[in-house]
Amino acid sequence: MDTDVLIVGAGPTGMTLANELLVAGVSTVLVDKLPQRSELSKAGGMQSRTLEALDQRGLLEPVLAAGDHPVIDGHFAGIPLPAHLARHRLPWRSVPQVAIEGFFEEHLAARGIHVRRDHELVGLAQDADTVTATFAHGATVHARYLVAADGAHSTVRSLLRVGFPGRPGTLTVVAADVRLSGVDQSVSHTWSDDGHWAALFPLGTDPQGRPLHRLALGGPGRSLPREVPVTEEEIRGGLRRVFESRVHLLELRYARRITNAARQVEQYRHGRVFLAGDAAHIHLPLGAQGMNTGMQDALNLGWKLGAAVHGWAPENLLETYHTERYPVGAAVLRNVQAQSLLMDWAGTRDPDVEALKAIFTDMVRLPEVQDFLADTLSGTAVRYPMPDTKTHPLVGRPSPDMDIPGSVRLHELLRSGRGVLLDPADTFAKVAALWSDRVDRVGQGADTEPMLIRPDGYVCWASNPDGSTHDLERALGCWFGEPR
């Protein structure tokens, strides 16, 4: 066995997973077919739940320092969501994907995990104990598990002959990284009277300190085949149709056409191979939900693979990766498809869609709708289907951060990659001792309810202060295996 886990694909999903496995003490090989890291911005934002997870690993401040990150307003289908900033302790931040990848590659390399580039996967086989991957230059890697994080056109998925059901792309829009004159750093969605539209959000600044933007353009007649190059004149013409003479192109850094295809694999696990990120689900890139969903796939899977490698994983723990993450991916596809319809990406000016958008815009003014959409887009609305989910409102949800006696925050306690048992009344010492090699018991005297938190930061048991020891023991066994 060359390594415990082989990760194919060194984008945000693959590198997040590599870091989780590093925290779990699992040997990892990370490969990518590209000879060097892409310098394209790609996704441009980080959701609240992803930011919380990075804080739980002590990586939040270093990631934010890796790129310019002004706080930006959220939106749903171009309709502003002011509650998006006020709703969460860590609101949406604008951090380009290129900065995230650059940070993780340096962070992992400093800890001994170097991306093996120019590794094109050409063969894949597995048996009861091993996955064997073969690469174009002749190298072979044997691993206990393999994770496909190799994007929408996943080679792993193709070699497995796994279907990718869903809807093919029916239109394309232009996405470009640009420098513009006549705009500020705020998010902007603008439509012309004839159905042409432009969407802008900030990407920070270039090395000379000049503001950069991600620009998307669409409308009647603008849906061209993906392989047709995007020209400067096309960008200038699109800006004129929407902004007239107010906004001008100063520099086109890169541009491509993206589609509204929406697909999701039916199973995230195939024996010893797991699919994550765009290898498992694709959709129109709105709100960087693809990147964030992929990173959260990795956060869910990492500690479970660690438990399996170390031998204490409960039966079916690895199966919960699919049962927990598949519904999340499906929900993201639904909200993106709804946004695409409301935004009228094709520029049809369909009166029925216009009527629906008018009513929806009025609804979004309601605080309850604002909160619902903010939680949905931020990733904080996720509730995993766990045993006893109905008995306590916190179970299945991300753990709240809080101060713990001893001048430490709960998120800081999760940086070990172990489970955490909050025991404010000092009630559960005896039962917790049986899992002390996997779970830290803390929080005596804290102003909180008893709570058991998984390594990925999700509450898997919570109780009143006089909660049942039997229920806690059952939860510990369910998520942390047999007692030592």
Automatic annotation (TrEMBL):
Q: Which keywords does UniProt give here?
A: FAD, Flavoprotein, Monooxygenase, Oxidoreductase
Look up the domain of life of the source. Bacteria
Kindly list the cofactors needed.
Answer: FAD
Q: Kindly give the InterPro entries that the UniProt entry links to this protein.
A: FAD-bd (IPR002938), FAD/NAD-bd_sf (IPR036188), RIFMO-like (IPR050641)
Tell me the GO molecular function terms: monooxygenase activity
Ranges in a coiled coil: none
| The keyword 4Fe-4S belongs to this UniProt entry's keyword annotation | no
**Keyword hit for Flavoprotein:** yes
Domain FAD-binding per the UniProt entry, residue ranges? 2-335
Per its UniProt record, what PANTHER family does this chain match? BINDING MONOOXYGENASE, PUTATIVE (JCVI)-RELATED (PTHR43004:SF19), TRK SYSTEM POTASSIUM UPTAKE PROTEIN (PTHR43004)
User: Could you identify this protein by its name?
Assistant: FAD-dependent monooxygenase
Q: Which species is this record about?
A: Streptomyces camelliae
